[in-house]
Amino acid sequence: MKYLSLLLVLAFWACGGGSVTLSTPEESSKGLLKAIKAEDFTLAKKYVSKRTRKNIENLKTEMLNMGTPEEKAALKRIFQSDFADPECEEVDGKMRCRMCCTPDSAVAEFFLVQQDNQWLVEFDMEL
């Protein structure tokens, strides 16, 4: 039984069981979009700076309380895209990562800051 428990823990770990990789701006950007796409807002908060966590909570509230099904579908469609790998570059001491494309061919763009050797997304949001 002890070995079965160990195997389950190893399988969970190997499948990414909740682990978050924040060692590069690219990983953080992709991780955030995947979490939002899965509507896993608790996981999404792990990819953002403390300053930005309130925006994730606002996004969650907005997605859950949309007035009409069409409004909710329009917002969700942005995050349901299969984004290409991000292209990141340094801009004014931060990393800017861009990923193409949303259904209307818009580019997702994030700025990231490094805190405690982790790359965290920072953004302001107006809904």
Quick summary:
This protein has 127 residues and is α+β, with helices and mostly antiparallel strands. Helix content is 45%, strand content 20%.
Find the CATH topology. Answer: Nuclear Transport Factor 2, Chain: A
- Given this structure, which CATH class is correct? Alpha Beta
The average pLDDT is 76
Sheet with the most strands, sense and barrel status: 4 strands, antiparallel
Shape: globular
Structure summary, number of beta strands:
4
Strand content: 15-25%
What does the radius of gyration come to? 16 Å
How would you portray this structure in words?
- There is one protein chain.
- By secondary structure, the protein is of the alpha+beta class.
- 45% of the residues lie in helices and 20% in strands.
- It has five helices and four strands.
- A hairpin with a 2-residue loop joins strand 3 and strand 4.
- The longest helix has 15 residues.
- The protein starts with a helix and ends in a 5-residue tail after the last strand.
